[in-house]
């Protein structure tokens, strides 16, 4: 993974990536997108999202996780590619209902198979590094779900949204 100290800190004139206080801005008109904490930001469109840049790869997961929580679905990580120096080149997250179970696990079984949880959902979020600026840009953003989304009450039961605060853990 990329170390935080391996790249120089950007100046605020560029400001086109996620900052430590979980804010980001787009390059066209400096629209601030705040509170990706699951408060429901369904009004953010693709034009704002596609111009976002992230300084650290570690900041992209909280962004998409907050987006997923606000839009009532869970996520899971899939692809991760590194370069020779150990820097992350590409990272992809998908809806937790992406894909389907293999046929061999459904037929010729002694026990009854578990219920199907995957529904071939196409929603995904993929980032890649821009070699010119060394910032992470959004390569793919698909928000097309093939299943019913959870209610606001059910969304916290998704595995990606379950967490225990450090204070509660202690």
Mean pLDDT: 74
Strand order of the largest sheet: 1-4-8-7-6-5
Oligomer: single chain
Low-confidence stretches: 1-42
The count of β-strands is: 8
- Total helices: the number is 3
Helicity level: 10-25%
Shape: globular
Please write the string of helix (H) and strand (E) elements: EEEHEHEEEEH
CA-CA gap between termini = 28 Å
Structural class: alpha+beta
Q: Biggest sheet, in brief?
A: 6 strands, mixed
Q: Into which percentage range does the β-strand content fall?
A: 15-25%
What Rg do the Cα atoms give?
Answer: 18 Å
Domain FAR1: 63-150
InterPro entries: FAR1_DNA_bnd_dom
Organism: Dipteronia sinensis
Protein name: FAR1 domain-containing protein
Summary of the model, kept short:
With 170 residues, the protein is of the alpha+beta class. Helices cover 12% and strands 23% of the residues. This is FAR1 domain-containing protein.
